[in-house]
Amino acid sequence: MIDHASEGGESLGRRLRAARLARDLGVAEAAARLRLPVALVEAMEADDHARLGAWVYARGYLISYASLVGVPVVAVDAIRQRVAEAPPPLQATTRTSRSHLLLDRYLRRAVYLVLTAAIVLPVVFFARLERLDVRHLTLQPLDPAVELDADAPATPAEDQGEQPVVASMTPFYLRQADAGAVGPPALPGAAIAAVADSRPGVLTIRLTSPSWVEIVGRDGARLEYGLLEAGVERSFPVGSVKSISIGNADAIRVAIDGEPVDLEPFRRANVARFELSSSGQPTPVDG
After folding, report:
1. Helix (H) or strand (E) holding 195
2. Which of 182, 213, 217, 226 has the fewest beta carbons closer than 10 A?
3. Which residues pair with 216 in a beta bridge?
């Protein structure tokens, strides 16, 4: 903005130029003393304040020039109200339609739903996949093992083909598909051949103190695994068990058909490990 009026009708730029000429200073010499470009000195003398930038810079330039040539500094502040900074240029904006706003909003919600489904659905699928099929399982209280007399007559339960199932953390008993079939419950995988070659029997473990226990079946599956508390009792068919590992040998009692198993030959420190042969006899673990 160019200001042509100041005190007494003379603009500030003309006063600055007159004072410079009175001191016999050229434009270049004045610019050198002010350490400003010649173009800025010419702009101040022409009252072209817009070329000086924002008013905070323009005021500094004008005060320095006025002090150099002897013009009163108050003359600079006197023109402040007549110098207006150019308003910022208006930016044209496009009008967004309501349908576009709604589409953008619903698209973002759809993205959130898709991401949520991508995270939740696999979790639910694998959780359902890992659930145990309990429809064919039967449970029976953990009663002490009872020795059976081979010459004794069959009980009504045996006549009906029903077999007792002992509760365990691993569901190794499954009923046969034919509910009317008579015979022992089906065992998984290689355990069928092992039972066929071994004598009938029951392996029983009882814990007097907490101990870590791992019992592996003939098919390589874990029949029992984890830390068992004192008082827990587990029973397994002898033919289905391949190896047994006990973390605290002093806290467990092992019996086969009611006969205690001496764990001393299989101990190393307080850990006992042994296998069951095809005849159901405890043997050291190979290696």
Report:
1. helix 191-197
2. 226
3. 222, 243
